[in-house]
Write a structure and sequence with these properties.
single chain; alpha+beta; Beta-Lactamase; 5 strands; about 30% strand
Length: about 150
């Protein structure tokens, strides 16, 4: 597992350039794994995020329902892809904007693995264009990066 983590951190830096990273969520436990870049983007040096609820707790209250509904819609099969934008609290108390997308990559009865990527939306750059480019990066290709990622981790 550590060898795979090392490879994913290299992927983060080489392909995603520290402004985006991968994540995986295991359901029903809620346990999460993700690239180190996510904690760095949020201003943390240690991985204090062990469960998806740890992230939900710092999502802007006005964005909470939208984020949760997007995940419910995907888990219920209403959408082929989980995708949303939201504000999340940085360690310094300021909110930063993220674009998040993912999909179910493994299903075993009630047990699910949802894998995806999160990108920090950069100020001063067209948000729609950033999201389009990012989504294309992880979903295009043969096979798509998100599919390859689900086999590595």
């Amino acid at each position: 597992m550590e060898n795979n983590s090392f490879k994913m951190e290299q992927f983060d830096m080489a392909v995603l350039n520290g402004t985006a990273t991968w994540w995986q969520m295991y359901l029903p436990s809620g346990e999460v794994f993700f690239g180190e870049a996510k904690t760095k983007m949020l201003g943390y040096t240690d991985n204090i995020f062990k469960n998806y609820q740890d992230f939900v707790n710092i999502v802007h209250p006005e964005d909470m329902e939208k984020v949760m509904q997007a995940m419910r819609d995907h888990l219920e099969g209403k959408t082929g892809l989980y995708k949303t934008t939201y504000r999340i609290k940085h360690k310094d108390g300021e909110y930063i904007n993220f674009y998040d997308c993912g999909q179910i990559t493994k299903r075993d009865g009630e047990n699910l693995v949802v894998s995806g990527f999160v990108m920090k939306i950069l100020d001063g750059i067209d948000v729609i264009e950033q999201m389009k480019d990012f989504k294309e990066l992880i979903l295009s290709g043969n096979p798509p990066i998100i599919e390859l990622f689900s086999k590595i981790k």
